[in-house]
Amino acid sequence: MLKKFISYYKPYKKMFFLDMLASLFIAIIGMGYPILTNIILEDYAPKKDQRMILILGACLLLCYALRMMLRYFVQYYGHVIGVKMQSDMRKDMFIKLQKLPFSYYDEHETGKIMSRMTNDLMDVSELAHHGPENLFICGISIILSFSYLLILEYRFALILLCCVPFLIIVSLVFRKKMRNAFAETRKSVAVINSSLESSITGIRVTKAFTNQEEELKKFEVGNKDFVKHRSIAYKAMGEFFSSTTFITDLFNVVILVCGALLYANDPINFPLSKYITFVISINLFINPLTTLINFVEQYQNGVTGFKRFLEIIEEKEEIDSCDSICLDEIAGMIEFKNVSFEYETTKDVLSDVSFSIEKGKKIALVGPSGGGKTTICHLIPNFYQVSSGNIYIDGKDINKIKFESLRKNIGIVQQDVFLFNGTIKENILYGKLDASLNEVIEAAKKARIHDYIIGLENGYDTIVGERGVKLSGGQKQRLSIARVFLKNPAILILDEATSALDTITEEMIQEALDELSKDRTTIVVAHRLSTIKNADEIFVVIGGKLVEKGCHDDLLKIDGHYSKLYKRQYK
Asked: Residues 28, 34, 37, CA angle at the centre, nearest 5°?
């Protein structure tokens, strides 16, 4: 983990080196005050040499002015390094999320993923800046100050050193407890974010059903859990800091008592000036120790955040096999050969399914909900790996075809249309990012939505809102169809594309879909059997098995499952 964390410093190693160099000078300049205090009290104050006292004071002031500029450099550029590292990690996480399979998103909530990308990486950024700086400055300060204390009065320095193990022991005892407590806090924050994301996304449903109180109850579950875990974390933190502060206070008591005894018994060899200097100098030793102690909380937050970041980075992603090929064009032949599939939580979704679809044919999948129709549609673009069996496109196993090459030749129109919060033009262009405006307009015309678009005040530059909230269901559906027209795929999948629309809108969209289906291998999932009467072949899928197949008229004659479905729908 440490090696991975350090790797993010490499692009900024020059700036990091300057940051550490500035930190070194800050630590060295910090030694100036006690040294000059000792010189003034022992050499120039007794001689009443006011000139040298003023000169040394001016030198110390100049050093402090230099330290001010160095602190500015460290604060500004150190944080810039941290932010840039955070940006790099966020980019790596985003790239990783794009490569993860559908199954990952089935098991992980959006809000929790967002929490890792925002809150966790913010703490990692703070650790990236303050970690090396605190360790370096404090480490140098402790070494220099202790060396000076040895020179000044070795007996005091050794007494001080004897107290340090107590501080280390206390820190180690409470450190693990704090780490575990803050890890649980992270999880509770992710739960809150997930609940919040769900509630905000579904706010219209909440208002429609006047269920604000219910949403508040669900939110409060995570909120109270957060308070509980945060309270435990703060208890551990309180125990840690109160104990370590007591040890540092013990340092002062020991030095006060021992110094007073030495001065009282041997004022010649241990004059008051040396005692005052030592008391001042001890803070140079204690303060960096205290800083390191206080740094433990930030360290715990940063390490916990980085571990959660690595959990995503180390997830198994979709990777093309070493012998996979790239298909420039796909004819559209599809074959399922003894395909079985199950999700992690749902077994026997598909069982030994076999069928073939010729190029340019239109196939319909019908059957009760949960039968496996949509799963078949998800397996064709290789969104999920089959449990057993094989799927072939143009005679080639889809596991031997590069993901990008396969999916760019498959167009999908679903019932639940997703539109990005951008313009109408940008959403249509998603089908082909380098398309011209004329191509976009032509696709919109084919999707029967061009006339509506040009009637808007901003035309194709109209913002559709989050998830297309400013458009009706039919308008969103036609935009998604325009997107597929622009993509121009060889294989088309229509998954309940019109089931949520009114009759008039459905007829309009069905015309667009019929045009879209021309000369393409088309798979239609439909509950309204009237929309698939003219399909070349109809597959009846029940309980994960292909139980019947044939054209509409032949299946009615069989008087089997399809016939019962048809009669039930139109009795």
From this structure: 135
